[in-house]
Amino acid sequence: MNRRDALEGLLAAALAGTAAAPARAQGGTLRLVVPYGTGGAPDILARLFAQEMAGAYGTVVVENKGGAGGTVGADVVAKAAPDSGLLLVTTAATHVINPALYPNFPYDPQRDFTPIALVAGTPLMLVSAAAGPLKSVADVLAAARAQPGALTYASAGNGTMQHIAGALLESLAAVQATHVPYKGSGQAMPDLMAGRVNVMFNSVAAVAPLVRDGRLRALAVTTRQRLPAWPQVPTMAESGLPGFEADAWYAVFGPPGMPADAAQRVHRELMRILELPAVKERYAALGLEPLRSTPAELADTVKRDLQKWGPFLRSRGIRSTD
């Protein structure tokens, strides 16, 4: 079976699996679709939102519909009726990364959704083994230039933001390195700490404990400005790569044509939830940066990032291996 047939099969199965569900929301019921499995940040956020929105909506359920890097679950919402009560709690991948990774993409990330709000950001940190020789971005670039292809960088898989950040380093620095994809960030950590792979871009939440206990060394962050929690760690731009910026965001979308009053109600609820002290504490524990936006700002973010990452991924020949 080729990649196109596999993707179409996954989409058909997912849509068939939702056929028995109500086509319309009943009694204010919301169904939060997470296009990934349980336990990850999107799933945790969706369950947090569901808990806090129950008072306003009565019934709020979370449905995990993983597959094709999030494309399967996102397509369920893209094909839903405007008043279906479905919402998509997702990452930048489903709207600005996957369209460039998968052939014959099933939905238009701008036309087929109602943007509601950005809700979180995930800064990345470039790290190396604490006992290794790479102590700065300058060391990383020097090693890459000394022997093209010898420097290795790990990622959680082909086409992930970790991979894309590594490819951006290669592009901006005009160096050649070797990408080493793993099946998840956790599987890369032992090799990274042991020095079997040289560096990795990973979420601050994932690497912070290992940096603090001395097993990894923080080299730089991928945000435009230094992080308040890590003021001693420079940005990639400060470290000799002007224009380097690569971090992930999380957002909530409705189906296409969602009634304006319904979308506005969800937006108000999300903005209220983001101000709750308990939610702020949960974000901090997850290593997430709270984001607040208008629907128009989310739409602008999708448009901007599509223009940024689509051509870049295609120029680098980065495709999904799912």
Properties at a glance:
D-Maltodextrin-Binding Protein, domain 2; six-stranded mixed β-sheet; 2 domains; disordered N terminus; about 45% helix; single chain; alpha/beta; globular; five-stranded mixed β-sheet; about 325 residues
The oligomeric status of these chains comes to single chain
Written as H for each helix and E for each strand, in order along the chain, the element string is HEHEHEHEEHEHEHEHEEHHEH
Q: Which CATH first-tier class of the largest domain would you pick?
A: Alpha Beta
Q: Roughly how much helix do the residues carry, as a percent range?
A: 40-55%
Briefly say what this structure is:
43% of the residues lie in helices and 18% in strands. With 322 residues, the protein is an alpha/beta fold.
Describe the structure.
The protein is an alpha/beta fold and 322 residues long. The chain is 43% helix and 18% strand. The chain has eleven helices and eleven strands. It has helices spanning 3-17, 41-57, 71-78, 93-101, 137-146, 161-173, 185-194, 204-212, 260-274, 277-286, 295-316; strands spanning 30-34, 60-64, 86-91, 114-122, 124-129, 152-155, 178-181, 199-203, 216-221, 248-254, 289-290. A six-stranded mixed beta sheet has the order 2-1-3-10-4-11, sandwiched between helices. It is globular, with a radius of gyration of 20 Å. The two termini are 12 Å apart.
